[in-house]
Amino acid sequence: MKQVLMFILLALVLAPAATGQETPQYEVKIVTTIESIIPSGVGRSRLISTDAEVDYKEFTTRQTAENGDRNKSDRDEIRIKDYDETKLLNFFNVAGIRFQNIASNDALLTSKINDMMNQGWELAFVNTGVESYGGADDTNGIFITRYIFKRQKVEEANDSTPE
Q1: What does pTM read for this prediction?
Q2: CA angle (88, 94, 98) in 5-degree steps
Q3: Quick one: which of 58, 34, 56 has its CA closest to 46?
Q4: What span, in angstroms and rounded, lies between the C-alpha atoms of 122 and 24?
Q5: Which residues, listed in sequence order, are joined to residue 88 by a DSSP beta bridge?
Q6: What is the residue-level pLDDT of the chain in tens, covering all 163 positions?
Q7: CA distances in angstroms from 3 to 11, 14, 17, 18, 110, listed in the order given
């Protein structure tokens, strides 16, 4: 029985290659939340996304033992000026942690994720991090989350149709 199951599994995995089907191509989109964890609510919290297309190769240099030239890419050329910025609420206010703000941020993020899923995006991965100096007198900090979405690329139709 195990051999039959293994054969079926192997056949399913190899089926696209055997039938000449190409491996699906995907596109990726990243949505980032930055939520302030600064006491007294003085920080800024945002949901950031962009549809701008950039080729990372334009800003990349190859470092080798023979060539260690500094990357001289101009920051103004790298900086994206076309993006969506959604205001979020800070985790803290003067009285301390504000759970209502967290619930509000969750509702905004849920709306964004639902909208993207309706556009065919699938949430593929989530990565989080906290940046803070630490210590008793810590007055700085952010909580950052990157939501990585993917969707299958739609093959563009060939405009040259035979007559």
Answers
A1: 0.74
A2: 50
A3: 34
A4: 14
A5: 45
A6: 566 655 666 666 666 555 566 788 999 999 999 998 877 777 889 999 999 999 998 888 888 888 877 788 888 889 999 999 999 998 888 888 889 999 999 999 999 999 999 999 999 999 999 887 667 777 778 889 999 999 999 876 555 555 4
A7: 12, 16, 22, 21, 44
